[in-house]
Amino acid sequence: HDNAVVKTLQEKAIQMMESEGIQIEKVEHQIALGIFPWVAGLACRVHDATTVKEKFDMLVKYNKDLSGTSRTLE
Which residues contact 66 (CB under 8 A, 6 or more apart)? Predict the structure, then answer.
């Protein structure tokens, strides 16, 4: 991704966390940045695997505890 886009998304995520009362230390922030590529890769594999994607979609559809409108791994 473009560095500016990644930086903007990172800042947005931090603002969302802070609005929920979650604050992290600098070292935790660095660790989180290190796992982002793995999480993104997992999301791609889930969406690319038809069987897993179908099961994921069913779990999302019938989970009453989910909030918001997002229905994909992002």
Answer: 60
10 close to 37: Cβ distance less than 8 angstroms: no
User: For residues 17 and 71, what is the distance between their CA atoms, to the nearest angstrom?
Assistant: 20
Number of H helices, E strands in the chain: 3, 0
**pTM higher than the cut 0.85:** no
Rounded CA-CA distance 44/65 in Å is: 24
| Token pair 């793995």 in the structure block, residue | 38
- Neighbouring CB atoms inside 10 A of 53's CB total 15
In this model, does residue 74 exceed pLDDT 60?
Answer: no
